[in-house]
Design goal:
CATH superfamily of the domain at 13-260 and 291-325 and 395-437: NAD(P)-binding Rossmann-like Domain
Largest sheet: 7 strands, parallel
Number of strands: 14
Bound molecules: NADP nicotinamide-adenine-dinucleotide phosphate
Helix content: 40-55%
Radius of gyration: 24 Å
Strand content: 5-15%
Length: 485
């Protein structure tokens, strides 16, 4: 890509500080991870509310036989961009794909592209990551930890950097129960972990993984923690924000209610319940879930870039991007979802949606065999196994930096273009839209289908018969047991 004058329009200083739109006007942005759930949403928001942005560079890797250009076209063909494309078609000319891969030396950038980024980019959003919990340690370290180190190296070279935002996770220190907005160290130095993983000795890597998993629930959260530490020790010269979202759910309002595009986390569980596949989960019954709709995460991330530039510390500022909505337990959320999935059923459900939550491992194991393992012989075993995770933890997240930022944003001229406060969250409405979103964006179904409603009512009767049969069978077993023993 040729050198370009992205800073052509001028914006006065007060505009930069008085509004979010003014802050982004004339700035050039680099986004990694733009083809993912959060990255796509950030791109959509930026082009919708910041029309004077100078340029947006998207670091995208070729994948599965698709070239950079094909992937870029596919990204912009996503219907979530339709409305902004209609309103402001010229904005598309400001978006530029750049071939890169965070797992490769020098981010896999061509020397020419690197120079172009170094000359032009002002704000960086680094989101690219492997979010698979069980990724082999060396792969997760290379993408999430070393990949972040490579991005920070580039950021340090930028000639006109004004802020860098790293999207981490609220669970980067999941072994703690109370999590402050600060960077925690590990007993293993990030450089030592990288050295072992790059050494390629399988025995050493396995031993390391075994040690790591004694403290961390998975390789994902551990490698995100290491990335935070790398940023902390390598970013003296840069204003850096580390945004830590908890569980990111479908959008509440923007770009439309219920928007989503991956099936991880809550979405995966909802999908399995709605399809009638997941029937039992093991969890502490009153455990609260920290779910944040993706549009809040986007707004907090966009505002963090502004906030950290204006209120610069000599160390990265951490923002626990967690919920301050009325608390909701797993059981409440699950129950709301079950009701929605019965009211607006998915097509081709396998059975009537219900799902028990049990805290006792023994009861869970028995139910799991009857409800999941046996039917799994005729169903997709993969979906079943995912339901085995036990949810028992709850965390207290400090939110001082988020709160301070929220207060400062309220004083801006265009504070209404972002939502940072979830206190008026209506969970029932949110879950209803979530179900619509799963049907529309994941399953590509019509929201109302007579066929699925008819099938659902048949399944309801099958469900009732099974319940009655279950009660009779259980009573008979107990009676036999009492009679003979
Ligand atoms: N979703 C959540 O609940 C959640 C919660 C907390 C934090 N986060 C954080 O939010 C960020 C975005 O997550 P997400 O939910 O949007 O995940 P996602 O949908 O899986 O997207 C991941 C993005 O990273 C890119 N990527 C992966 N490996 C790459 C590589 N080697 N080089 C370049 N790009 C690469 C992917 O590109 P391809 O399309 O090429 O694969 C994709 O664009 C991550 O940093 C994650 O840790 C997510």
């Amino acid at each position: 890509m040729d050198t370009m004058d992205v800073n052509a329009n001028s914006v006065n200083d007060s505009e930069k500080y008085d509004s979010i739109e003014g802050f982004y006007a004339t700035n050039a942005i680099l986004v990694t991870g733009a083809t993912g759930f959060v990255g796509k949403s950030i791109l959509e928001k930026l082009i919708r509310v910041c029309p004077r942005i100078a340029a947006i560079f998207l670091l995208i890797r070729p994948k599965r036989g698709q070239t950079l250009e094909q992937r870029f076209k596919k990204l912009l063909d996503d219907p979530i961009y339709d409305s902004v494309k209609k309103k402001n078609p010229s904005i598309l000319s400001k978006i530029h794909p750049v071939k890169g891969d965070v797992s490769l030396p020098d981010l896999g950038l061509s020397p020419k592209d690197r120079i172009m980024l170094v000359e032009n980019v002002n704000v960086v959003f680094h989101l690219a990551a492997t979010v698979r919990f069980n990724e082999p340690l060396n792969v997760a370290v290379n993408v999430n930890t070393k990949g972040t180190a490579r991005v920070i190296e580039l950021c340090k070279e930028l000639k006109h950097a004004i802020s860098v935002v790293y999207v981490s996770t609220a669970y980067s220190n999941a072994y703690l129960s109370e999590i402050e907005e600060k960077i925690y160290t590990t007993c293993l130095e990030p450089s030592a972990v990288i050295d072992i993983c790059e050494g390629g000795n399988k025995t050493f890597i396995d031993q390391l993984k075994e040690k790591v998993l004694k403290t961390y629930p998975n390789t994902y959260t551990f490698t995100k923690n290491l990335a935070e530490q790398i940023i902390s020790s390598n970013s003296d010269s840069l204003p850096v924000a580390i945004v830590r979202p908890s569980i990111i759910g479908a959008s509440q309002e923007e770009p439309c209610p219920g928007w989503l595009n991956n099936v991880y986390g809550v979405t995966g569980v909802f999908l399995q319940i709605g399809k009638g596949v997941l029937k039992v989960m093991t969890a502490k019954r009153d455990v609260k879930l920290d779910v944040v709709p993706v549009d809040y995460v986007v707004d907090m991330t966009i505002c963090a870039a502004w906030h950290v530039t204006l209120h610069r510390d000599n160390k990265p500022k951490v923002y626990n991007c967690t919920s301050n909505a009325p608390p909701i337990t797993l059981i409440q959320l699950k129950q709301m979802y079950i009701e929605c999935s019965r009211d607006v059923p998915m097509n081709d459900v396998l059975s009537y949606p219900y799902c028990a939550v049990v805290s006792n491992r023994l009861i869970y194991s028995v139910l799991n065999i009857f409800l999941h393992v046996l039917p799994a012989f005729i169903m997709d075993i993969f979906l079943i196994l995912r339901g085995k995770k036990s949810i028992t933890h709850e965390w207290i997240f400090h939110r001082c930096n988020i709160t301070e930022m929220t207060m400062k944003v309220k004083t801006l001229k265009d504070s209404d273009i972002v939502k940072l406060d979830m206190r008026d969250m209506n969970w029932k409405k949110y879950v209803t839209n979530y179900q619509m979103g799963i049907k529309k964006f994941i399953l590509k179904e019509n929201s109302e289908s007579v066929k699925s409603a008819r099938r659902s009512s048949l399944l309801y009767w099958a469900y009732l018969v099974t319940q009655v049969f279950g009660v009779v069978a259980l009573s008979a077993t107990i009676a036999l047991f009492i009679t003979y023993f």
